Amino acid sequence: MADLTQQLLSPRDEEKRSHSPESRKRETKAATFSPGADDIPPINSVRDFYREFCVEVRKLWYLAAPAVFTSICQYSFGAITQLLAGQVSTIALAAVSVENSVIAGFSLGIMLGMGSALETLCGQAYGAGQLDMLGIYMQRSWIILLTTAVIMTPAYVFAAPLLKLTGQTEAVSEAAGVMSVWMIPQLYAYAVNFPISKFLQAQSKMMAMSAIAAVALVLHAFFSWLLMLKLGWGLAGGAVVLNATWWFVVVAQLVYIFMGSCGRAWSGFSWRAFQSLWGFVRLSLASAVMLCLEIWYFMALVLFAGYLEDAEVSIDALSICTNILGWMVMVAFGINAAVSVRISNELGAAHPRTARFSLVVAVISSCLLGLMLASILLITKNDYPSLFSNDSAVRQIVKKLTPMLCFCIVINNVQPVLSGVAVGAGWQAVVAYVNIGCYYVFGVPLGLLMGYKFDFGVSGIWSGMMCGTIIQTCILTGMIYRTNWNKEASVAEDRIRKWGGDSIS
């Protein structure tokens, strides 16, 4: 799998052959690769493990805590606009909900996925001390994502007819279509913001991102209330504030970078950003496919529930569960970002044992966190559904689905960690194929079979699709277990050199 990733990144076709001289050289190098001087010492006792575990936990959560906070703040931008839209009118709420979940959600998945290519490249370059390459990588990603935004703009312009084709009502489609046109500036903010985020994450500058996100959230809440409700601007006010909030985040982060806070990582704009663009595009596309396949998988769960008997009750109950899961996923995304940075930094620094131990600590930490959150829901399963619905039928289904939700929370706290390792090591293309097989070849058909053929309803659909997630998690676990971390560190060195950096000293 490391060879597949190296092939993806290789700028010349002849180097893509597994029997090429470059490939044989890399295999020989991996066999003789020696870890860096600062790699973790061998662990020979429980005391050694506990000592190193505590050290790594501090490093992990130094990155994860602000990353979780930033994710929650940014997730809340759209949620606040949606909440206030409900006080404007029913059609306004529907328009914002559809635009957020369908149009902006689709764009977010693609942009965030393509931007995650920088987690591999920036993280490994930073670990190797090739700081000058971080700014070059970010500029390459800007070029690719801004081009992608131009290609996606027609989807915003023609959102109304596209939504009608999916079965949305005339009124909702027209209102959401108008909202989508107003939200085009947000699309371009995504294209600039996500490369910046990965650039800063690779340098462990999470606190700056958190501070900017916190200020943006406070301003967003105040001005959304002022324009949408107090001044009566309605949907137009919501669009203005949401666009302004995302561009505030972008500008504030750029000011932070341009002021010299990143040292050699930002040395100004360079024509080198236009070199090796095609290889960068391929890695970005692989990253986007890997992430989007996961996001759309759970979007399909709600879609399938809409075709059941008592669809309204089923969708309401499932929406409550997915809403809770969505907040939990924000925590998992923070851990995902943290472990990706740790793995890529340590591989880039030629510390394979530390990279492997970082993975162990992240999996244990996320599993314990998932179990704690799941236990809270199980204990309160008779009470928490009433916080979301007054309908007794909906509350009863939510209560019935709680064990499934708890199991899903545990799995979805571990699975993003494994995906973060894949991103940190540069395995996006391989994981994309794994996701296609596990999710769409196995999970979706099994869910539909259990939900419709065997008449298990929403529980059957969710159970079948969860089986796909479990298999994907097991395959990733097997891939990571069999990984030669010395070889991955040597591949990281080759990758940095081929993409413009120097060899690790």
Distance between the termini: 26 Å
**Major sheet attributes:** none
Tell me how many strands there are: 0
Q: What is the N-to-C order of secondary-structure elements (H for helix, E for strand)?
A: HHHHHHHHHHHHHHHHHH
Task: Please tally the helical runs, counting DSSP H or I stretches of 4 or more residues.
Answer: 18
User: Which spans of ≥5 residues are poorly predicted at pLDDT below 50?
Assistant: 1-33, 501-505
Residue share in β-strands? under 5%
Number of domains: 2
What gross morphology would you assign? globular
Which structural class best describes the helix and strand composition? mainly alpha
Radius of gyration: 23 Å
Overall pLDDT score: 78
Percent in helix: over 70%
Keywords: Membrane, Transmembrane, Transmembrane helix
Biased composition (Basic and acidic residues): 11-29
Protein name: Protein DETOXIFICATION
GO biological process, one term: xenobiotic detoxification by transmembrane export across the plasma membrane
